């Protein structure tokens, strides 16, 4: 594995960092907390115009056609800045599902719009009282002629208020993986959105579907193949979330190291005291190790190697590191670290939420164990 970035990859990093600094500084991040839409329109416009939104979409559909390694570079920078955008649910999950299993008509209709940012797709996956696996999908879709009728409730649907289509996982049979993916208009009759609050104060909605009619042409992939598609897309996607986590952890550590240099007690910087210095040293070691694991997973996928073990390992380790590092950072900042006026709490809250969403610790450990033991 080559850890030297090319000139193009370094330029991509600089570009994304610059865009985030200009259009998503932390004051904008604060303004977007609990916002009904949840992302600044100017940031989303810039990401689309610069080709970042479609970085993983093939050139044939108007994207940049880059690999997961370039995607990891982008996500590290998004994580550093905490930039709020629907890139992950739309361009990564939605676009990935269409690429993996969509019909030619679906790809032609949606992928160029996803790549440009004109259309936003978001998965409606999790349900009340249910888990992360296929058995957790209980919302039913029954076939009636050339349509499906969907009824049930989804929770924690990211950016649903601004979505063009919901990517709904629905049960179409009794076997555990008898699940299909449907493109559903969030403004269709029978769809109700209710905004939810979250630890990270990002934008999530409860989505209730009551006898919502969806054309069979809006099913993605062959019948009862939805979970396999979603699972495969998620294995790529969690590598990017791991990169997001490591970018956030690295930035949280940077601002804390600076604080440890500036804050003085007993006529010396608090970073000069061994207890603080060793905390920071341990964190720096964990962050560097986590970044290497993320790069390995992204590199492996970019080179056509299996990531059934590496992908969940990357998110598992990165999210635990992000949570632990930001918790330690809050301790170094002392009492002010927990107050809303200071920035470190922004990172801590997002670290914990990321750890328990998009496959939590227990589910990831099961995936890693399965890969190790099989």
Widest beta sheet: strand line-up: 1-4-5-8
The span between the termini is: 25 Å
| Derived structural class | alpha+beta
Give the overall silhouette.
globular
CATH class of the largest domain: Mainly Alpha
Report Rg.
21 Å
Proportion of beta-strand residues = 15-25%
CATH architecture of the largest domain: Up-down Bundle
Structure summary, number of beta strands = 10
Tell me about the biggest sheet? 4 strands, mixed
Instruction: Give the number of helices.
Output: 11
What does this entry look like structurally?
There is one protein chain. The mean pLDDT is 97. A hairpin with a 2-residue loop joins strand 2 and strand 3 (147-158). It is globular and about 80 Å long. By secondary structure, it is of the alpha+beta class. It contains eleven helices and ten strands. Helices cover 51% and strands 16% of the residues. The chain has three domains: 7-119, Acyl-CoA dehydrogenase/oxidase, N-terminal domain (Butyryl-Coa Dehydrogenase, subunit A, domain 1, Orthogonal Bundle); 122-223, Beta Barrel (Butyryl-CoA Dehydrogenase, subunit A, domain 2), CATH 2.40.110; 228-373, Butyryl-CoA Dehydrogenase, subunit A, domain 3 (Up-down Bundle). It has a four-stranded mixed beta sheet, covered by helices on one side. Strands 2-3-7-6 form a four-stranded antiparallel beta sheet, with no helix packed on it. A two-stranded antiparallel ribbon has the order 9-10.
